[in-house]
Amino acid sequence: MADEMVQRAQRFINTTYGDGAALGISKLAEDGRTGWTVMYALTRALQYEMGLSALSNNFGSGTMAALAEKYGKVDETTIPSANFCRIIQSALYCKGYDGGDIDGTYNSRVKSAVIKLQQDMGVSATYPGSSLWPKVIKGLFNMDAYVTVNNGQEVIRSIQQWLNGRYVLRSDFYIIPCDGHHSRDVAKSLLFAIQYELGMADGTANGVFGPGTQAGLKNHVLSTGSSGVWVQLFTAGMVLNGRPVSFSSSYTSSLASSVSAFQSFMMLAVNGQADFRTWSCLLVSYGDQTRQGEACDGVTKITPARAQALKAAGYKYVGRYLYNPSTTDLPEKEIQPGELATIEEYGLRCYPIYQTWARSVDYYSPEQGKTDCMTAAYKAEEHGFKPGSRIYFAVDYDAVDDEVTSYILPYFHSVRQQMDALGSPYKIGVYGPRNACTRISDAGYADTSFVSDMSSGFSGNLGYSMPTNWAFDQLVTKVVGSGDGRIEIDNNIASGRDTGQGSFYPSPTQKLDIGFSLDYWDAMLKEVDDYMESIHRPGGTGYIYTRQECLETIMTLDAAITSSARRYRMRKALIQTSAFWEFCHYSLKDYTEDAGVVLYHTGVIPDWGKDLPGVSRLVDSSTGIAKVSGRTAILSRNNSIRSGLLEGAILDSTSDDDRWTMWQKSNQDNVFNVTTVPHLHIWAADGKAGDHEETPQRRPALDYTETETFEVLRRYQGFGEQAVADNQLRMPLYAIFEKYNSIIRG
After folding, report:
1. Which end of the chain is more exposed for a tag (fewer CB within 10 A), N or C?
2. What is the mean pLDDT of residues 370-394?
3. Are 198 and 225 in contact (CB under 8 A)?
């Protein structure tokens, strides 16, 4: 919303300084909106009026020194010119204060505004009256707010004002915002405050969590009954880290309880005291880097000797990369052949990470998210990670908040959508700075965070609390072991929210299927259609979809079918054949039975079934693309859950409620329907327990024989002579799908 006085300030700059030419800037838009462009122009105008030769957007040490040397303080007795005063008046308006009529007079309205500004900053006790001191002027000429904005918290504002008021006279401490929000500047100011209270001189105190600061904090353990400025500093740290405490100078039992909760959350020793490690976690993202973690990650192959060294050092969880597109850079970054077997043999567990670049904002787009998800899932399947493993997708740079909004969130949304399209074989985690992890998780795109806290200078770490769903906290790079067992790793604290995988599918003996290439679409469609026509299937009237519509639908689900086939080490032609055959034979009778199932469970015929003749109550039906009933979906998925192939709850195939729940998924979710097909094949091979039980045979495999393929496809149809006859017609269809799949996989 335009502000008339800000507009007047913009007009003042344009008319006084030749449309900005004298200041080395372009003409300002006279739109009445405050922003950095206006503040930079006012800063340059101030420098110009002081006679500085080099004008800059930066209100730096040179400008500060010139103010102090020339005027000491600015008020009605020292202000050098009317234009200088107009600049001050304009800046006040841009900050939301009444600067008078921009008339060049340091009048009562200006004085009242200055008094209010300094009260809001928390420095009125240090700078009483209506004079402007250099540090206050510096604070006036930026975009910091000194009142709560955007739902800022009053308790944080009180901390900001307290820090300003107590330390503003220290040479390297500058006035921080009092907007009620934690930030990079606030975090650094708290470190300055601690260094000042430790007795560090100006010039020595630097806002860095260095050896001197750490040594000093080890001598300031606080506990119930402690009081004074150190408790104020500690409670400030607790508040800024999102803990529900008061900013206080008294260490109460209530505070001790909150400290214990924080220590438990951060996986620290729980004692309710402000000890060194607790101080560290409050002040800097990586905390105490001497802490020994149970997790690590690295770009080096885990050999038996290295596995022994890691285990001896107390590590349980190892993060390894799913993919490295380079064949020369970091040659062991991607999980190496036999490595997961070594990890399993030595009792370690592995959590997979996906990162190829991800080190600048231009990497992130929805298209890249889709590609990365596909590649990550396929590589996880290839390496042998079981369903339910969590893949950490990386944000490995200092993504500022606007970039998270505009680029990172759309990328992760695409990752989430594509993982759903694959049938949700893997969970999604995020690796990155605190802010990115929190926002991605809050949006529902990741369920745990691997936090790059080692990068303490990232703006996405400074001023942000630890994500509530953190699984791994990356602290420091270190070397473990010696000789053949020597390995460089990142040392990570583990929260227990993710324990990785401890067992893996064996490496495939043959090439896994890959996604379909549209180059073969026309040829495959003709061959499939010609074959189905030759056998007159489906024949007659009453069928819902054409053969081309059925094949097109199957191919739109190729990603999910391919992912399932790779995961369970079977040929995707098994899934394609069963799904396509059933879908082609979806008839008006099936449609009517579906309406009857809805009637049975809801008491109402659905709108799409009201014109169908002969709808009657039916507890279950074979529904959806692959004609999967609620009962067989339950039995097959239960079999896979019990075998450790699938995550989920065991359902009761005799329960109307459970059958209805599963039927609805099969009817309404095409991905769920087709990704149930491999479980039906596995269940069939295992003997179809709970159904028409048959002799178990080898589960579907990449080297399945023609006899095994025939038998498992037949069991999908049922049993008896008709099932055998129908399956004899399905085998050539299987051969067509496998022909094109084999060409594509190479």
Report:
1. N
2. 96
3. no
- Who's near 371: CB < 8 A, 6+ residues apart? none
pLDDT in tens, 12-59: 999 999 998 999 999 999 999 999 999 999 999 999 999 998 999 999
Distance CA 598, CA 618 (A): 8
The tokens describing 711, both together, are 């038998």
- For the chain, the domains span 4-143, 147-284, 295-494, 518-586+624-745
pLDDT digits (tens, 9 = 90+) for 269-282: 999 999 999 999 99
Q: Is the pLDDT of residue 11 over 70?
A: yes
Residue 495 Cα to chain centre, angstroms: 17
- Answer left, alpha or beta for residue 244, where phi above 0 means left and psi between -120 and 50 means alpha: beta
1 pLDDT higher than 70: no
Kind plus residue range of the DSSP H or E element containing 155: helix 154-167
Q: Which fold has domain 295-494?
A: TIM Barrel (3.20.20)
Dihedral of CA atoms 393, 399, 403, 406 in degrees, nearest 10, equals: 10
> Hey, which residues does 501 pair with through a beta bridge?
350
Rounded Cα distance between 121 and 161, Å, is 6
Helix axes 366-383 and 409-421, enclosed angle (nearest 10) = 50
pTM of the prediction? 0.92
Q: What CATH number is given for 147-284 in this structure?
A: 1.10.101.10
pLDDT of residue 2: 80
Quote the distance between the C-alpha of residue 442 and its chain's center: 8
Residue 222: DSSP 8-state: B
Mean pLDDT of 476-496: 98
Q: How far is CA 722 from CA 47, 82, 549, 576, 739, in A?
A: 93, 101, 26, 21, 26
Tokens of 280: 């560290």
**What are the strands, taking DSSP E only, across 103-225?**
none
